[in-house]
Amino acid sequence: MTTPRDLLIVAMDGESGRPADRGSLSLALAGAEVIDLLGVRAVELDGDRIVPGGGSSLEDPLLREAESALTHQKPYESVEDWLWRRGRDLSSAYLAAFETEGGLTRQRRRLVSFRAGDVALVDSPARRGAVDRWESHEPVLVALATAAGLYGEPFGEAAEDSTNTPDAPDTPDAPDITDDAVATVLAAVNDAVMELEAVRQRRSIEDAAFDNIWRGF
Q1: What average pLDDT is seen over the chain?
Q2: Interatomic CA distance for residues 117 and 101, integer angstroms
Q3: Per-residue DSSP letters for the chain?
Q4: What stretches pass through the bilayer (predicted)?
């Protein structure tokens, strides 16, 4: 499994926290791809620029797609630009891959809010691996989930501990990221999510002002 796939599982699991915002999650997924590409030395960072490395053997088709989408000409692409370009509706791409691979099952009731059609994760080694990674508070996954707004207790803890109150969920401790390149990517994800929210707020204010103008006529 890859970090983006684990992040999507965290987002879809009902015990992981708040419902995922598709835009914020897509940005976090794009950041997770860069982190995994860094991990296999398919890329390196020059400041905040993503520099493609020597060809790597990537088993995951979406990571291969991400690698092929890299900018190979100087001055290369900044992490921020990558997040906005690659992250466009990326959550839907990963969700479609899960469904194609048999990782999802359709339900009669709504379990996720990513798209039309009620789907849920099936029990699988991939899901259990993501659960283990989340429950262990693995720093990178926690940081990405936090950036995407997926606050709350790790999988299953709320269900197992009846003393926990649903209106006061625990948030994992702030992760300790020691790799400078990974920290750069995570900072860019946080900034992009904040920018996305700021744009939404501006649009909401503008729409409200427009409505108020029309009410005056």
Answers
A1: 81
A2: 17
A3: --HHHHHHHHHHSTTSSSPPPHHHHHHHHHHHHHHHHHHTTSEEEETTEEEE-S-----SHHHHHHHHTS--STT-EEHHHHHHHHTTTHHHHHHHHHHHTT-EEE-SS----SSSS-EEEPP-HHHHHHHHHHHTT-HHHHHHHHHTT--SPPTTHHHH-TTS-TTS---PPPP----HHHHHHHHHHHHHHHHHHHHHHHHHHHHHHHHHHHHT-
A4: none
Structure tokens at 190: 């946080």
Residues 6+ apart with CB under 8 A from 184: 45, 48, 79
pLDDT of residue 215: 54
pLDDT(151) > 70: no
With beta carbons less than 8 A apart as the criterion, state whether 166 and 28 touch.
no
